[in-house]
Specification:
It is built from nine helices and six strands.
């Protein structure tokens, strides 16, 4: 009961339409809707308070400000601990979330590193949160995990690392996700396969169009030649 009273989960995830402005995945709107729904179902099964910040609730001029302000907003509601996640790491399970809550209750900091150098989960205490420091971190860069881990170490906070997972930002990430397909829900897996199939069809179509256009441009002997005096 102590964990439920003092720990909240912050899901920092935009709407699918907004996500696709930053993530070049064709026909990915249904996929990101499913990822968000799957994420929300997982956090609800922890029985912890949940706050979902989409672009409608976020405040700030850039990602770092919006994310940091969202964390501050949840802390202002009276919680001592926050577990913050996105919607693009389908390997994340209810067990990982519960483990993060348990470690926070033991005064530890929890980080789930992602393959791109960032993190997919951050469990932190209010006493370890400095809004100005967080705003200046290298958000959305490959060295984010190392920088935030170093800051926590300097704050004498014991860090618990979760497994390294793949988040989904582009087509290559979707292909990589097929390697851990057993850990994905059937709906998410099917959508990934559908999106990849659409991308292959689009690429094939573009190549065929380009080849046909180039062929006609170079070898079109039937078109009349026009001269201007």
């Amino acid at each position: 009961m102590k964990i439920a009273n003092h720990t909240a989960i912050l899901v920092f995830a935009n709407s699918a339409k907004k996500e696709l402005e930053y993530k070049p995945i064709g026909k990915g709107e249904q996929l990101f809707d499913a990822l968000t729904e799957s994420t929300l179902q997982k956090v609800q099964r922890t029985y912890l308070p949940v706050f979902h910040f989409t672009e409608e609730e976020q405040v700030g001029a850039n990602f770092g400000e919006r994310f940091t302000n969202a964390i501050a907003s949840v802390f202002e509601k009276g919680f001592e601990n926050i577990i913050t996640i996105g919607n693009d790491t389908p390997q994340l399970t209810v067990q990982h979330l519960k483990k993060a809550a348990e470690q926070l209750a033991q005064e530890k900091t929890v980080i789930g590193p992602s393959l791109d150098g960032g993190f997919y989960l951050l469990g932190l205490k209010k006493s370890n949160f400095d809004i100005e420091v967080f705003k200046d971190l290298p958000w959305q860069r490959f060295d984010l995990f190392s920088k935030i881990a170093l800051w926590f170490q300097n704050e004498a906070s014991e860090i618990v690392k979760l497994p390294v997972f793949q988040d989904l930002d582009d087509e290559q990430d979707l292909k990589s996700a097929l390697r851990f397909s057993k850990s994905l829900s059937s709906e998410v897996l099917q959508l990934i396969i559908t999106v990849l199939g659409h991308l292959r069809q689009l690429i094939t179509h573009n190549y065929l169009f380009f080849d046909l256009y180039l062929h006609k441009s170079l070898y079109n002997k039937g078109s009349p030649r026009v001269f201007f005096a």
